[in-house]
Amino acid sequence: MKTVYTISLVLVWFILSPIDLQAQGVASQPYRQYCFVELMPNDSIAFGEEEARSIQVRHMVNIRRMVEEKKLLLAGPFMDGGGLFILNTSQLDEARLWVDSDPAVMAGRFKYKIKLWITEKGLLSLESN
Known about the structure:
Helix content: 25-40%
Number of strands: 4
Largest sheet: 4 strands, antiparallel
C-alpha cells in the first residue's frame, strides 16, 4: 500500500510540475510559444443549410481578419471535421478571447481545446503567398 501511495505522489508531482525547459535542453535554444487550438464539431446543434453557409462565410472573414492582425498564423480544416488554429500568442486567456470571438464558435458550430505549443524559433515556416 505504501508503494502505491508513493507512486501516486510521484505521478501527481510529475503531472502538476511546470515544464522544465532547461532540463530538456530547450531553454538553451531560442524558442517560441504559441497557442494550438483544435476546433471540434458540435454535433449537439443542427444548422440549416443557409444558416451553416452564413456561419461559414463569417468564420472565413474572421480568419482573414485575424491573419491581417497577425493574431493567426495557421488555420485549416481536418478532412474528418473540425479544424485548427495556431495563434500568435502564448497567453491562454488572450487565445480564449480570440477564439470566443469567432462566429462559428459563437454560434455553437465548434467547441474547442487550446494547448500551449512550444517550438524552436525559426522552425515554423509557412507559405508566403
